[in-house]
Amino acid sequence: MIWLRSVLAFVAGFVAMGVVVGVLTALLAPIFAPNNQATPLWLVVNLSYSLAAAGLGGWVAAHLAPRARFGHGAAIAGFVVVSYLFSNMQPQPGQPDWYPHVITLIAVAGVLSGARWRAQRSEVARSV
Length: 128
Prior knowledge:
- The chain has about 130 residues and is mainly alpha-helical.
- About 80% of the residues lie in helices and about 0% in strands.
- The longest helix is centred in the N-terminal third of the chain and has 31 residues, at about 1-30.
- The chain is elongated, with a radius of gyration of 16 Å.
- About 30% of the residues are buried.
């Protein structure tokens, strides 16, 4: 049943990332992006919490993984890249042209960082 725990770790990490982004977007977009216009401040806020949410997603996946903790975060990062490649890569109305590319890079960096941090913490705990 290790494969089931791996699948659940992946799904939980991905869902954690999505829920945080969804909730914060719903709460903050009306404040920072009135009329669906991506102001510079909104872009900074959005990219910042997206990075943090991706880090949490990677951490959750690595924490729940039965083994290969970093690998589970890397799987989420790979899924983000594949999703990006198969999407139309067009910004939503009100977003700058560069946004889909940057948000993908931020998501990948965040997931990998969160997974790496959790994986290193477990390595340190085992060595003590």
